[in-house]
Design goal:
Elements: E1 2-8, H1 10-14, H2 18-28, E2 31-38, H3 42-48, H4 58-65, E3 70-77, H5 80-88, H6 101-105, E4 114-116, H7 120-130
The chain binds adenosine-5'-triphosphate and magnesium ion.
Adenosine-5'-triphosphate binds at residues 52, 57, 61, 91, 109-110, 112, 115-116, 118.
């Protein structure tokens, strides 16, 4: 059984979307094995998004993701890494398929409501960054 790291970003939390997003996860059948609302430190944000360090939007991205509480979620399920990314939709909400979280709730690439690990390696790294083993079911 696969695990992934999901996050409701500050825009989603601020807009009260947490219950709706958790309901979609539950309906889909994924198991929530870890969950916490927290403010991300600059250090954690820079590590989490380290692959984007050289990109022009990196500063803005770190400001945004540390700018308010997020909800960090550990999910378990069959092919949950790709499945959760499919539920989120494309990075740019304008390209996101109808019915996806980003299509339904986001309008900009910068503030696109949710995050999902993009590979087994990212999932392991990101889960370790946000959760201790004793915090997960
Ligand atoms: P995430 O990693 O947050 O799940 P993603 O994997 O769909 O999103 P990435 O390419 O990893 O997309 O980009 C990480 C995040 O950086 C995006 O979700 C978005 O918030 C921000 N981002 C990406 N590209 C841009 C851009 N061109 N302008 C502004 N922000 C961007
Ligand atoms: Mg990504």
């Amino acid at each position: 059984m696969e695990r992934t790291f999901a996050m409701i970003k500050p825009d989603g939390v601020r807009r009260g979307l947490t219950p709706e997003i958790l309901a979609r996860i539950q309906k889909k059948g994924y198991r929530v094995v870890g969950l916490k609302q927290m403010v991300i430190s600059r250090q954690t944000a820079e590590s989490h998004y380290g692959e984007h360090r050289e990109r022009p939007f990196f500063g803005e991205l770190v400001e945004f993701i540390t700018g308010g509480p997020v909800v960090a979620i550990a999910l378990e399920g069959e092919q949950v890494i790709s499945g959760w990314r499919a539920m989120m939709g494309a990075t740019n909400p304008a390209n996101a398929a109808p019915g996806t979280i980003r299509a339904d709730f986001a309008t900009t690439t910068g503030e696109n409501v949710t995050h999902g690990s993009d590979s087994p390696e990212s999932a392991e790294r990101e889960l370790g960054l946000f959760f201790g083993n004793d915090e997960l079911l």
